[in-house]
Amino acid sequence: MTLNKMNSASLEARHVSLSYGATEVLRDITLKIEPGEFFALLGPSGSGKSTLLRLIAGFNQHQRGELLVDGQDITGVPPHARNIGMVFQSYALWPHMNVWDNVAFGLVERRESRDAIRRKVGAALELVGLADYAKRRPGQLSGGQQQRVALARTVVIEPKLLLLDEPLSNLDKNLRVQMRDELKRLQRTLGLTTIFVTHDQEEAMTTADRMAVLDGGVLQQVGPATGLFDEPVNRFVAGFVGTANLLEGRVQAVEAGGTVRFDAQGIGPLHLPAAGLAGPVPGPGAAAMAFRPHHVLLQARGAAAEPGRLWLDATVESAEFLGEFSRYRLRVGEATVVADQPHYAGHPVLATGTPVRVGIAPAQVRFLSH
User: Fold this and answer.
1) Of 59, 209, 216, 288, which is the most exposed, with the fewest CB atoms less than 10 Å away?
2) Which of 361, 360, 275, 351 has its CA nearest to residue 312?
3) What is the structure's pLDDT at 70?
4) Is the Cβ–Cβ distance between 194 and 204 less than 8 Å?
5) At residue 19, does pLDDT exceed 90?
6) Among 345, 221, 353, 228, which residue's Cα sits nearest to residue 292?
7) What's CA 165's distance to the chain center, in Å?
8) What share of the chain is helix, strand, coil (3-state, %, to 5)?
9) pLDDT (tens digit per residue) in 198-238
10) What CA–CA distance (Å, rounded) separates 314 from 336?
11) Nearest to 6, CA basis, from 144, 167, 181, 124
């Protein structure tokens, strides 16, 4: 017995703004989520991502703009009439009810028949792997099992949209990885349009088809994980989606021969080929030279330099051994550069104070003007 593939709905926000008094929490949000999409809202605390999720659920109201599900404006529709399912960070299970009754609760409230409740609850518990736990109470379950109950309780009502608020934050690291896979499997099985909120970039990148990055209530960028990682539109996205080196300075000019002159603060003039850069070169003015730590190559001073890279003298300030790689903080002039180097058995971590050379591939460099 299984739950049927669900009818996927689209969600569209058009110029949505929300304020609490004089405080703007969401500013002119325009966003479209396609039917059947697994979509993440990513951002730091206070970015507005949870407010947007609760707005979709109907727990708060925007003052401006439209919010549409399958093209129908749901502004003003109360939460119980939206047919949108939400799994809360705390799971919000009834402690005095067993698993079966928790999952059946929404169907009972909708006055479905006993046969329909028995069939749908059984299918939902089977879907999340808890068919043998129906008579247990939430207090007798692990955190991961409680989350599965919350998911079953939500999908059993066959909602148009599934909303997940920080769904994995209460779990330990290994269980988070396991539950990420479970969420993807469940979402693909049901074909249910799913929107989840997280501040964990790894969680968003490994799970979502696309994601939106918010900061200060403003939508910064929307796209697949690879697009946001490789082509950030501004300093915030570059630094929040993954780790980035951001060398502040000024683009002075594109010199004869197609060379970009960039005056990096604390380092001095750097020259890079305009044609070989990862993105367009902004006009003269303030900018940040952005590149990822794993694109930085370290060599001993005096070693033969690999051609095609920008090479700078540096000194190791600190090192972290992270298993698969070591992360170095390097002093380059008066600036700091982070470099991630893969770890191989027999290769010791470089000591603080070691003089090295930093090699930066122009093809991995992007200039960001804002």
Assistant:
1) 59
2) 360
3) 94
4) no
5) yes
6) 228
7) 13
8) 30, 35, 35
9) 888 888 998 899 999 999 999 999 999 999 999 999 999 99
10) 9
11) 124
C-alpha separations of 351 from 88, 122, 327, 354 in Å = 46, 59, 12, 6
Residue with tokens 């002159």: 261
Residue type, 136: R
Q: How far apart are CA 62 and CA 54, in angstroms?
A: 11
Q: Over the Cα atoms of the chain, what is R_g? A: 25
Q: Could you give the CA distance from residue 1 to residue 51 in angstroms, rounded to a whole number?
A: 37
Exposed e or buried b for every residue in 52-88, given b needs 16+ CB within 10 A? bbbbbbbeeebeebebbbeeeebeeeeeeebebbbbe
Q: Torsion angle, CA of 361/362/365/366, rounded to 10 degrees?
A: -170
- Dist. CA 219–CA 51, nearest whole Å: 13
Structure tokens at 183: 């969420």
Q: What would the two tokens of residue 155 be?
A: 């999908």
Tokens found for residue 326: 């070591």
* pLDDT, tens digit, 9 for 90 and up, residues 270-297: 999 988 898 888 889 999 999 999 999 9
Nearest in space to 93 (alpha carbons), one of 171, 153, 176: 153
* 255: pLDDT strictly greater than 50: yes
**Burial 336-354, CB ≥16 within 10 A → b, else e:** ebbbbbeeeeeeeebeeeb
DSSP secondary structure letter of residue 280: P
Question: Is the separation of the CB atoms in 60 and 54 below 8 Å?
Answer: yes
Q: Which residues contact 325 (CB under 8 A, 6 or more apart)?
A: 294, 340, 341, 342, 343
Residue appearing with tokens 């060599």: 299
Token output for 15: 């110029």
**What's the pLDDT score for residue 157?**
86
**How does pLDDT run across 32-71, given as a tens digit for each residue?**
999 999 999 999 999 999 999 999 999 999 999 999 999 9
